[in-house]
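Async update (no meeting this week)

Hi team, since we skipped the sync, here's where things stand on the single-chain job. The sequence we agreed to prioritize is pasted below, unchanged from the tracker. I ran it this morning and attached the output directly underneath so nobody has to dig for it. Comments welcome in thread, and please keep replies under the output.
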Amino acid sequence: MTLLGRLLAHPKTRGLDLDAPETTALRREIILSKPFLRRVYLDWYRRIATTIPEDVDGRILEIGSGGGFLDQVIPDVITSEVFIVPGVDLIADARELPIRTGSLKSIVMTNVFHHIADAAAFLDEAERALAVGGRVIMIEPWNTWWSRFIHERFHDEAMLPDTDTWEFPPSGPVSGANAALAWVVVSRDRVRLERDWKFRVTESEPFMPLRYIVSGGVSLRSLQPGWIYPFWEAVDRWRPLRRNQAVFAFIVLERTD
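Output:
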């Protein structure tokens, strides 16, 4: 992180251990306290909710729930985390889910997949736990020149689009990361994904080049008031900006026969 990133760091998170459960719980508090950022998450959650398959039986599992509030939008979601934090239903590792085979209609996550140190192990578990027609739905950082520029200056986590593996050394549940992992698996290595697992990519849409950044996210101070959100929402809709400077992608993997 650059000097500017350190200067803009949110005072509540500055210097905290990223892997401490208390830090994850604090991030939920920060999201709810920043009106602009809360609207970003609401947009994410509403889109996830409308993508849950209605014609598939089973429950909905969220992975990495501790820092968010998806349960306020999808009340019957099973929330999970890798450590104990308030308000979470299940303590579980995404690579070894304590879930009955074929019992889920969706596995959802926001900003979590790129922290899973072995993506192949997660895909094995997702394939097993999802019913046919069930979906993995996630919002993840995306690999563009703009997102790499932002990550280099305002994030401590690595962004490694040129990696030759879907794994990275597990340094901790939050500190360990490759922010380009979703792009690597779903875009660069899509042939391998759809060949080796019973998944097909039904959506992979780069989006939101500016809104999350100007919100300050969970790590930086508030950079915009909540009332200006519609302006930035309109700017983010501009197609060339979304295509070339997207910071995130909305991704859906559907479980096939």
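Quick observations from my side:
The beta strands are 59-62, 78-81, 90-91, 104-110, 130-141, 199-207, 248-255.
The CA atoms of residues 77 and 177 lie 25 Å apart.
Reply here if anything looks off.
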